[in-house]
TrEMBL record:
Belongs to the radical SAM superfamily. MoaA family. Signal peptide: none annotated. Residues 309-326 have a biased composition (Polar residues). Binds 2 [4Fe-4S] clusters. Binds 1 [4Fe-4S] cluster coordinated with 3 cysteines and an exchangeable S-adenosyl-L-methionine and 1 [4Fe-4S] cluster coordinated with 3 cysteines and the GTP-derived substrate. It is an enzyme of class 4 (lyase). Catalyzes the cyclization of GTP to (8S)-3',8-cyclo-7,8-dihydroguanosine 5'-triphosphate. It catalyses: GTP + AH2 + S-adenosyl-L-methionine = (8S)-3',8-cyclo-7,8-dihydroguanosine 5'-triphosphate + 5'-deoxyadenosine + L-methionine + A + H(+). The gene is moaA. GO terms for biological process: Mo-molybdopterin cofactor biosynthetic process. This is GTP 3',8-cyclase. Residues 4-230 form the Radical SAM core domain.
């Protein structure tokens, strides 16, 4: 369905949990965010119902995220149920990769098409620092397993933070040379916990791209790579994979935004940077029909804001990515 800015909204990002097994500095405070009581979180059946309803207003692509989606019990069953909805033609997952090696086989068998894995550094001690305790080796095992299983395209998400991983940009970009890995550099966004870090830590796409081209040569634009998100893709000469840029701050992609978010607590959020949400959990638990739920999804599409205004002084989102469904 089209919104009032003539954007086709066909992508639903579903946060299946607000919990996480890591505590990345730019995403969560050390103690984690306050844990929502379990009964406030949508059940897997409720999530399936919302996705079914959203297909009635044109949703075709679903991404499971969080928090960390692989800590949610029953995630494989959820994937199986969503893969069985005929209107859904792309079912993907964004994960920190820690539990991926163990679960990738069953997820693939259940119908998961592909994975995006977050990886900000190639140095084990640094990884442990930024994630407050994560083990890089486990993430690599997850990436290798995903490649073996053909969860293609396997994309890597690198949030670039000045003074933390800006010295590794070219090494990370080189990962795209020999294998079909799609390395995406993401501009740091000023969310709750990241609001402080983002002032000094933010690096623009232009700067990142400059470093890569200076050391590794010209990037050629790639027209199409499976996906529904905001990245623009390029290739280094002769590379098996690609390099992508997600320029959320410097060159926002709101004009081609195609998505809604479903938070773990059952709210539909039309825009990442606007606090406005429509509650679906109440109606779900009062027995709303699929048509009634679809009407609420349509309202979220109609009410979708045109863009964020971070560059014109819009204040940061008070919530963290993990709470909204990053
Ligand atoms: N500002 C903004 N940033 C977004 C939005 N959606 C995704 N992002 C950013 O893009 C990053 C990568 O998102 P992913 O979860 O990997 O998914 P994607 O890039 O949409 O997925 P595909 O292109 O379908 O592979 C997120 O971590 C955010 O930093 C959005 O709606 N607005
Ligand atoms: C919130 S996480 C949820 C899924 C999973 N836990 C993971 O880390 O991939 C989704 C993505 O959001 C990104 N992210 C978190 N905080 C961010 C911020 N302040 N700016 C830009 N990206 C951010 C993460 O790096 C990750 O790639
Ligand atoms: S970025 Fe992902 S892995 Fe890191 S704390 Fe946030 S939700 Fe957890
Ligand atoms: S900031 Fe809002 S309108 Fe812009 S791309 Fe993100 S969700 Fe879409």
């Amino acid at each position: 369905m089209e919104d009032r800015y003539q954007r086709e909204i066909n992508y639903l990002r579903v946060s299946v949990t607000d919990r996480c097994n890591l505590r990345c500095h730019y995403c969560m405070p050390p103690q984690g965010v306050s844990v929502v009581p379990r009964k406030e979180i949508l059940t897997l059946e409720e999530i399936v119902r919302v996705v079914q309803a959203s297909t009635r207003v044109g949703v075709k692509k679903v991404r499971l995220t969080g928090g960390e989606p692989l800590v949610r019990r029953g995630i494989t069953g959820l994937v199986r149920a969503l893969a069985a909805i005929p209107e859904i033609d792309d079912l993907a997952l964004t994960t920190n990769g820690i539990l991926l090696a163990a679960q990738a086989g069953q997820l693939k068998a259940a119908g998961l098409r592909r994975v995006n894995v977050s990886l900000d550094t190639l140095k084990p001690e640094r990884y442990s620092y930024i994630t407050r305790g994560g083990r890089l080796e486990a993430v690599w095992q997850g990436i290798e397993r995903s490649l073996e299983l053909g969860l293609h395209p396997v994309k890597l998400n690198v949030v670039v933070v000045r003074g933390f991983n800006d010295d590794e940009i070219c090494d990370l970009a080189r990962l795209s040379l020999d294998r079909p890995l799609h390395v995406r550099f993401i501009e740091l966004m000023p969310f709750g916990t990241a609001a402080g870090v983002s002032r000094e830590g933010y690096v623009s796409t232009a700067e990142i791209r400059g470093w890569i081209e200076e050391e590794l040569g010209q990037l050629q634009e790639v027209r199409k790579l499976t996906g529904s998100g905001p990245a623009r893709y390029y290739r280094l000469a002769g590379a098996a994979g690609t390099i992508g840029f997600i320029s959320a701050v410097s060159d926002h992609f709101c004009g081609r935004c195609n998505r809604l978010r479903l938070t773990a607590t059952g709210a539909l959020r039309p825009c990442l940077f606007h606090e406005y949400e429509i509650d679906l959990k109440g109606p779900l638990r009062r027995g709303a029909t699929l048509d009634e739920l679809a009407e609420l999804v349509a309202r979220a599409v109609r009410d979708k804001p045109g863009q964020h205004h971070l560059n014109q002084g819009q204040s940061c989102s008070r919530k963290n990515m993990s709470q909204i469904g990053g």
